[in-house]
């Protein structure tokens, strides 16, 4: 406990780190205040928020920190930006022009960011119209149409762009990972309500306090398991040839390429979830033609839904890892810098070796990711409240664990640069994205 207080004291002593933390907290406070400001022309007392807390809408509501169900000016949060980022990232794989921009360095990155912002505006405007028509009932509208829809579209779009701006400011002047921090705060804001809801339901049911304590212990074990998956790496040793320039010797050291067990991050779950909601969407357009097949995919606790969901996550993990981690480029970079894997020929043999290692570690990584993804459904089947069950796995838990680890890594880097002790007694905190593997959007 004494070491904890000493570390907190050291954090506060570093002027730059202190300023960054305070700036980040200020931005997050502004975001949370804005999430409670209701859209003009909406009667908050007449809102029916029960539908906005179930299924996909419940997940969006969690990411938006409850703004979605409150019809806030930040109701859409940063989800349109994430959707635009995914689209642009996929265009970078399929469209030569975007591939060229990715190779142009800083100037190309600025152009890609500009495209992402423009696409975010378009997606937000479309989602805003759909949100107003589907989530705000006519009884809750104080303005007449079409003025209400038009004004709400502009306000929701402006709200999303402002949240994006806050995220960029946190990245530049705060601790970093601005968009991820905003999503994390939105998820954490729902945790007390989930715990309270589960506590109240357990107090009135059989088992009482003992069942609640067992659920908290199970949640702790799931979080520990998720941390192991996020931080798990397979190190490939790389030896660099010795070079003597003048009186100095360069190279001759052994380093490692850290290959992530889960290099794809949360992207496979996001892709799989988007596809899994297609049958439900089709069924909503043709309610009279509902079949047992569509009904099975409408129930996210059914065996059919979860098996299909798990299989798609495994498939998307292999796909996303293949497009983000390039063994050939890694092999070429090592060869140019005089590096080689001991016992493996440089060039194509090294690329094949790295590719084989990636394939071997991606299989267990994808299976574990699928298990984490279906954990909320398992928790609901075992009797856990759906609001609390969302924290037992899925995208929300992966984002929470990843962002917390990244933030702690940033803080530890500042401490070690000033020759203070780190946050851990032994070793160092590892973030989600190593230098050799591609990072995820979130």
UniProtKB/TrEMBL annotation:
Component of the Sec protein translocase complex. Heterotrimer consisting of SecY, SecE and SecG subunits. The heterotrimers can form oligomers, although 1 heterotrimer is thought to be able to translocate proteins. Interacts with the ribosome. Interacts with SecDF, and other proteins may be involved. Interacts with SecA. The chain crosses the membrane at residues 21-39, 73-98, 118-136, 148-167, 179-197, 209-233, 264-287, 307-328, 367-385, 391-408. Keywords: Cell membrane, Membrane, Protein transport, Translocation, Transmembrane, Transmembrane helix, Transport. Belongs to the SecY/SEC61-alpha family. It comes from the Bacteria. InterPro entries: SecY (IPR026593), SecY/SEC61-alpha (IPR002208), SecY_CS (IPR030659), SecY_dom_sf (IPR023201). The central subunit of the protein translocation channel SecYEG. Consists of two halves formed by TMs 1-5 and 6-10. These two domains form a lateral gate at the front which open onto the bilayer between TMs 2 and 7, and are clamped together by SecE at the back. The channel is closed by both a pore ring composed of hydrophobic SecY resides and a short helix (helix 2A) on the extracellular side of the membrane which forms a plug. The plug probably moves laterally to allow the channel to open. The ring and the pore may move independently. The gene is secY. The keyword Ligase does not apply. One of its GO terms (biological process) is protein transport by the Sec complex. GO terms for cellular component: plasma membrane. It is a multi-pass membrane protein. This is Protein translocase subunit SecY. It is found in: Cell membrane; Membrane. It comes from Daejeonella rubra. NCBIfam families: 3a0501s007.
């Amino acid at each position: 406990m004494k070491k904890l207080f000493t570390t907190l004291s050291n954090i506060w002593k570093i002027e730059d780190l202190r300023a960054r933390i305070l700036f980040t907290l200020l931005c997050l406070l502004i975001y949370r205040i804005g999430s409670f400001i209701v859209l003009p022309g909406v009667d908050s007392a007449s809102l029916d928020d029960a539908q906005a807390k179930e299924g996909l809408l419940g997940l969006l509501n969690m990411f938006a920190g409850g703004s979605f169900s409150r019809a806030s000016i930040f109701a859409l949060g940063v989800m349109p930006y994430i959707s635009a980022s995914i689209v642009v990232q996929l265009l970078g794989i399929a469209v030569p022009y975007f591939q060229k921009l990715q190779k142009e360095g800083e100037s190309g990155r600025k152009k890609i960011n500009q495209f992402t912002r423009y696409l975010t505006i378009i997606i937000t405007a479309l989602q805003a119209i759909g949100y107003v028509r589907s989530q705000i009932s006519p009884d809750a509208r104080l303005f007449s149409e079409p003025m209400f829809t038009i004004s709400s579209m502009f306000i929701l779009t402006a709200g999303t762009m402002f949240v994006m701006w806050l995220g960029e400011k946190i990245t530049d002047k705060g601790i970093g990972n601005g968009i991820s921090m905003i999503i994390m705060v939105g998820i954490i804001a729902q945790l007390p309500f989930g715990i309270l809801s589960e506590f109240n339901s357990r107090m009135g049911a059989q088992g009482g306090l003992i069942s609640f304590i067992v659920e908290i212990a199970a949640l702790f074990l799931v979080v520990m398991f998720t941390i192991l998956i996020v931080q798990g790496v397979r190190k490939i040793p790389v030896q660099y040839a010795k070079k003597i320039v003048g009186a100095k010797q360069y190279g001759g050291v052994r380093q490692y390429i850290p290959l992530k067990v889960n290099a794809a991050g949360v992207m496979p779950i996001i892709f799989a979830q988007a596809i899994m909601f297609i049958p439900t969407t089709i069924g909503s357009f043709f309610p009279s033609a509902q079949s047992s097949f569509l009904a099975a995919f409408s129930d996210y606790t059914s065996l059919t839904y979860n098996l299909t969901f798990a299989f798609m996550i495994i498939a998307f993990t292999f796909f996303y890892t293949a497009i983000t981690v390039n063994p050939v480029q890694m092999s070429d970079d090592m060869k140019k810098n005089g590096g080689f894997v001991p016992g493996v020929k440089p060039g194509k043999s090294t690329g094949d070796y790295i590719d084989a290692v990636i394939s071997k570690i991606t299989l267990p990584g994808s299976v574990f990711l699928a298990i984490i993804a279906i954990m909320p459904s398992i928790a609901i089947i075992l009797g856990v409240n759906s609001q609390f069950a969302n924290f037992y796995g899925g995208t929300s838990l992966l984002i929470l664990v990843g962002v917390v680890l990244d933030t702690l890594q940033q803080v530890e880097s500042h401490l070690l640069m000033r020759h203070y002790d780190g946050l851990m007694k032994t070793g160092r905190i590892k973030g989600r994205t190593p230098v050799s593997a591609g990072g995820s959007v979130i």
